[in-house]
Amino acid sequence: MDSSEAELDRIEAQRSTDASHDQQNRTYLPMNIHGSQDFSQSGGDGVTPLTGDTESVPEFLTNLRLSDLYAIRGEDVRMIPEVFSKISDGNKECLEKLRSRGISVARIKSNTGDSILHLAVTWGHLELVKEIVCECPRLLLEQNSSGQTPLHVAAHSGHTTIVEAFVALVTFSSARLCNEESERMNPYVLKDKDGNTALYYAIEGRYFEMAVCLVNANQDAPFLGNKYGVSSLFVAINTGDVSLVKAILKIIGNKDLKGKKSNLESKLQGQKSLAHVALVTQSIGVLDVILDEYPSLMDERDINGWTCLSLAAHIGYYEGVCNLLERSTKGVYVCDQDGSFPIHTAAEKGHENIVEEFIKRCPGSKHLLNKLGQNVLHIAAKNGKFWISNMLIINKDTEHLGVGQDVDGNTPLHLAVMNWHFKSITWLARSSKILKVRNKNGLRARDIAEREVKPHYIFQERWTLALLLYAIHSRGFESVHSLTKPSVPLDPKNNRDYVNTLLLVAALVATMTFAAGFTIPGGFNSSAPHLGRATLATNPTLFIFLVLDILAMQSSVATIGILIWAQLGDPVLIRSSLHVALPLLLFALLCMPLAFLFGVVTAVGHVKWLVVIICIISVLFFSWAIFVLGPHVMLQRSYVSPKYAGDFLVTFMQYKDIIGLFVSLIKFLFCGCY
């Protein structure tokens, strides 16, 4: 006798031993189904007699043992590996062997609490499932250690045909039971340990055919919430399946709107913000289905206190905003719990198209003030949304918002300066009237910038101050001597490291340019009468190459000499040295690539198309180098003339984003990512 036969004998022996315990323990099904008057009419053989035309009944149900629903359950028997393997493989002979030995297949469980029906369902063995469920229909209600019934397992695994077989079984059985027992024979509403029904898993797995079958089988399951307060209806909305959501909502019935709404609230467990979920998933079809059935949901608030319109504005769902505005514009004038209106929310998040849509459809929305007395331009400026700020300030219908003051008397320009949002400064400071406005503390935007800028170098703050001072200088109503203020290093050690870095860069430039002077393009003559002289000495491009190379070398050497003074540790000497050394080093760094350009042109000047390509690349690089290095040098100087440097700063602001897009394009072409 092999090991599997011995194990089956052990199970059979355990079964007979447990029989006496069954009578004492009286362990019943999870739903406590134990006998009925209907069963006494079903016949003594345990097979449910069929009435009517048997052709309308699924074939596998003709052998259904409905009496098994009321059998007393004994103690579980451990499933041996042999049974586990054969059932997983769909082997029906194993089932026959268990029957021949008189072993109750309903009591065999794996170490995770799975019955043989759980295993057959997991592996999708439909015929084996039908045979097991006809013999032991109560296994359909058995739950494993995770609280899942075979219906849960089938839904989670996407076995639609098995789910349909289960639905046929339950429908057939319920028709032959009394009302009380029929309600108990209801696996659709059973929940696992997470509180999820089988329908939840069907929708979550996007098995929509299966989900429709389960919705039609039971009208309560779609509204049951799990332990996180999420119902199957919520999951259906989240998947964006319009037909499924429509099928679930039709369950409520065709009552009047008020009655339907009340009925929905009474049925739905957990979260009830249906329209909000549709907005988050950005499914306009589902949103239409929900609001067509329940228009009042558009005005309700979610757990965060947001209305539908506020939520759509927050997430930037433009199509959703337009849909809601077409239904009603009154939501535009309903504020959230924090006192902000939907247009403020859109401005805070930088959704320019939504702000524009609000103003176009509801012109009055631009005058709305939040609890701090701030209008939409205040919000955009405060949060650094410069595209919205620029759009509003150049629009004739909204430019007056620039002089609007909040409860503290601050204009949008004040708020942009307070938060050092330099991108908006040029547009917000476009008129003298705005620049002259004082807040309740008597401070103009300039006063705030000059008072709050930190003594040590912080690029964002000094860049904001420079742009604001240049705007004041351009308007001509107030004198501006310099666009910068002297900076004081926060930590002398960091300043010393900075000087050492500049020394290293200058030394490298000097070394490379020195070497380039003796390896000029074209080489040298190797014969008399001009032995050792440059072969292309009369070429004008070689002359330009040599001039630029010499300038780069001498500027870098001068930088080294000046920075040596900065090593003495005198703070005043350090600042003075940097003011001279930085421009010289910038000049050397710009001369070096230009020298390289003319050196290459000298060597390949006869290939015209190649010269054109090289020149285009070099111009782009040179422009980029100026925009990167220029502000770094200028903003560290104690004096920067607004007359000569201001235009460069504004130009840098205007084209910085264009250069950024160009850099992103290069990354995409060569690296495959932005």
TrEMBL record:
GO cellular component labels: membrane
Major place of residence: membrane
ANK repeats: 146-167, 408-440
Transmembrane segments annotated in the record for this chain: 502-522, 542-566, 578-603, 609-629
Organism domain of life: Eukaryota
Compositional bias of kind Basic and acidic residues: 7-24
Keywords: ANK repeat, Membrane, Repeat, Transmembrane, Transmembrane helix
Compartment(s) of residence: Membrane
Region of interest called Disordered, as start-end residue ranges on this chain: 1-53
UniProt domain PGG: residue ranges: 494-601
Signal peptide per UniProt: none
Matches recorded under Gene3D superfamilies: Ankyrin repeat-containing domain
Record's bilayer topology term: Multi-pass membrane protein
InterPro entries per the UniProt record, alphabetical: Ankyrin_rpt (IPR002110), Ankyrin_rpt-contain_sf (IPR036770), PGG_dom (IPR026961)
Protein name: Ankyrin repeat family protein
Gene: DL3235W
